[in-house]
């Protein structure tokens, strides 16, 4: 099983920090799961222009291929102007919806106000619903006050990261069992 953690931004480091922490928790409790971090800062991805996703080249193709090869996801975004990043929205637009169908998604968001957690409920979960993905019941929202420099230090948020990691892994393993038994 392959878990892809996505840091859906090209600025800052807090989102990457929390996504990476979730991946580390997965590795700690489920070492048999193959994890990879997709940090959008490391790629020069084109804007979606409506063409067939198979025609993209370079970094855009690499990113699409990484997403297609994953069995499940932990997706993180900072919240800017009360919304997900354009980088993450573009990523969703570049990948054909059926790639995400019946795959588990866990969500992480970071932001500067305590109300920004609502973006997960009001934007990310509906996008996952449209894509026909399964969403973990828990999610993680980390406010800027939950960090010391760029390290996540708030104990309650760290517990939520562990809970999310365990839920995503449990859901994926359970779905995999059901899928195998129905063959």
From TrEMBL:
SUPFAM superfamilies: Flavoproteins. It comes from the Bacteria. One of its GO terms (molecular function) is oxidoreductase activity. The keyword Flavoprotein applies. Gene3D superfamilies: 3.40.50.360. Keywords: Flavoprotein, FMN, Oxidoreductase. Residues 1-145 form the NADPH-dependent FMN reductase-like domain. The keyword DNA-binding does not apply. It holds the Pfam family FMN_red. This is NAD(P)H-dependent oxidoreductase. It comes from Robertmurraya kyonggiensis.
